[in-house]
Amino acid sequence: MNRGPEWKAHVTSRINVNQYHIDHNIPPTEETLFGKYAECYISAFTFSILLFILLFATAFLVSELLHGFKDISAPYVYASSDTIAHETSIVKHAISAYLYQGIQMVLVVTLAFKISTISRSSSNAIALSIGIMFALGQASLDS
């Protein structure tokens, strides 16, 4: 297969650069495949965390605007598994509930990233991840 003199010059220069790196014990400077995927995963994960924080802040503000800021110190009373009533701050309860949901979000983002990496189709990955998220939500509601 003849690809032309430009291709041969490019391949030869890459071989020479790689050999120089090996001879002088220099680590590769180009981005590896793992680095590319890790960077994409980190950016998707960071974006989802930022949206999650924005969702919490918006929900909190809208709730306070609709119900008034006077109830922010209201207690949240719940019964634990040992049937004893406990009391905590409503803000503390809201934060812990969102953090527990954050675990599901991390799993869904990771699953979507894996699917998009394997299938090379972002739309399939998003559709499957949303479907799984709804299925997990229904499973947690049923139990």
Structural class by sheet pairing and helices:
mainly alpha
- Please describe the biggest sheet, giving its number of strands, its sense, and whether it closes into a barrel: 2 strands, antiparallel
Number of domains: 2
Number of strands: 2
Low-confidence stretches: none
**Number of helices, counting only DSSP H or I runs of 4 residues or more:** 4
Q: Roughly what fraction of the amino acids lie in strands?
A: 5-15%
Mean pLDDT: 81
Spatially, the strands of the biggest sheet line up as 1-2
Q: Helix and strand succession?
A: HHEEHH
Q: What separation lies between the terminal Cα atoms? A: 62 Å
Specify the oligomeric state. Answer: single chain
Coarse morphology? elongated
Cα Rg: 25 Å
**Helical fraction:** over 70%
Could you give a quick summary of the protein structure above?
Keywords: Membrane, Transmembrane, Transmembrane helix. With 143 residues, this protein is mainly alpha-helical. The protein has helices at residues 5-23, 33-67, 90-119, 122-142, and strands spanning 75-79, 85-89.
What are the salient characteristics of this protein?
single chain; 143 residues; mainly alpha; 2 domains; two-stranded antiparallel ribbon; 4 helices; elongated
